[in-house]
Design a protein that fits this description.
Elements (H helix, E strand, L loop, with lengths): L1 H8 L7 H22 L6 H14 L3 E5 L2 H11 L7 E5 L5 H8 L3 E5 L13 H4 L4 E7 L8 H10 L3 E5 L7 E3 L5 E3 L6 E5 L13 E5 L2 H11 L3 E3 L2 E2 L10 H12 L1 H18 L6 E2 L14 E5 L4 H10 L29 H9 E4 L7 H12 L3
Length: 382
């Protein structure tokens, strides 16, 4: 048994992109070859095809591809035409990109705490964080499930605020409103944004991103901003930037999109096995599944009790099992943002989670043997 495990653990990865590529190789290679044959490397037909197919998948009118997920957030904010000094509310427990672009554009990031179970923005704190300068809320759908959007949207409507959804980690998740209606993550606010970074639920083999909106006027504005501010060549109507999805990456995404539901099903099966195996483990809390959202498990993120997170991570590493901490510091503890953010309320959950979360390997190609070894190793930790 030891020999089998020894051979196996050398292959365990957080996300096994190589094995997934080998499974899809004929289709991926053919898609890439079609780009090389046509030599339409910039804004080739595959880009428009992918935008149309993703819009249909999400049931949204407009999908606007761009260079990466951070660009998508920046362009989305630029499209709202805010003024310097305006405030944008954002969760304190998130990847820094959502806060970075707010500060970069001269706006003030206002940090609010997150729900201790879902790790998503705590809607109950939003109204207390408002000021006369508040103009927008950035909601991050973290780790694979939706934030609680109904109260967010109600507060935004009541106070005439824009809502941007950062959906990089939760493409394919759905949200059920109290009236029973169901919407895709990224399609409920004024603008949704996403990333196609290689490890994301919908991923290419480099950088890529997109924005989505139901608002035709906003879609036109975002399209122009991403294209040097021009509606047609050499006619620049506004200040913009240069951010576009590479045709080669669009061709890969066209293949991957076909398998989105199958990929989600595979990760959910891995998550279900983890859930069952860790039920009796006194040191860890398994991911909470919100009643209003499905979960696509971009990450399988534990909470480790009694300050044992770092020790458990070191133990796993000794056994050949990778793990990651997303994220080791809340935003307000990052040096770059300490003087830039406003923190109207305590951020105790963001701080606590940064000290206790640990993400385990989860991906579409995980074998039962690999997962059994991970489970056995964690359950033997004491």
């Amino acid at each position: 048994m030891f020999i089998v495990y020894h051979i196996m653990i050398e292959k365990i990865q957080m996300v096994d992109l190589h094995s997934q590529y080998l499974r899809l190789k004929p289709e991926i290679d053919a898609a890439m070859q079609s780009v090389w044959d046509a030599t339409a490397f910039i804004n080739g037909p595959q880009v428009k095809e992918f935008a149309s197919r993703l819009a249909a998948y999400l049931s949204i009118a407009h999908v606007l591809p761009c260079g990466n997920g951070t660009d998508a957030l920046q362009i989305a904010l630029m499209g709202l035409e805010l003024e310097p000094g305006d405030e944008v509310i954002v969760p304190a427990f998130t990847y820094v990109a959502a806060v970075e672009v707010i500060a970069l554009l001269g706006y003030t990031p206002v940090l609010v705490d997150v729900d201790p179970h879902t790790f998503n923005i705590d809607a109950h704190q939003l109204e207390e964080a408002l000021s006369s300068r508040t103009r927008a809320i950035v909601v991050v759908h973290l780790f694979g499930q939706c934030a609680d959007m109904n109260p967010v949207l109600e507060i935004a409507s009541r106070h005439d605020l824009y809502v941007i959804e950062d959906n990089a980690q939760s493409v394919g998740a759905t949200y059920t409103f109290p009236d029973g209606s169901i919407r895709q993550a990224g399609t409920m606010g004024h603008i949704g944004t996403t990333s196609f970074f290689p490890s994301k639920p919908l991923a290419c083999y480099g950088d890529g991103g997109a924005m989505m909106t139901a608002d035709e006027e906003l879609a036109d504005r975002l399209h122009k901003i991403a294209n040097h501010g021009q509606g047609k060549k050499y006619h620049h109507e506004r200040i913009g930037c240069n951010s576009r999805l590479d045709t080669l990456q669009a061709a890969i995404l066209n293949v991957k999109l076909t398998y989105m539901d199958a990929f989600t099903k595979a990760r959910r099966q891995v998550a279900a096995r983890y859930d069952e195996a860790f039920q009796a483990n006194e040191f860890i809390v398994t991911p909470h599944k919100a009643i209003y959202s499905t979960h696509v498990y971009h990450q399988y993120t534990l909470q480790v009790k009694e300050g044992k997170r770092d020790d458990l991570q070191a133990y796993l590493l000794e056994k050949g099992i990778p793990s990651m901490v997303y994220y080791p510091f809340p935003v307000h503890e990052q040096e770059a943002f300490r003087e830039l953010v406003r923190t109207p309320l305590p951020l105790q959950e963001a701080v606590r989670l940064s000290r206790s979360v640990l993400s385990l390997p989860i991906h579409t190609e995980m074998t039962t043997a690999e997962q059994e070894y991970i489970i056995e190793t964690i359950n033997s930790y004491a």
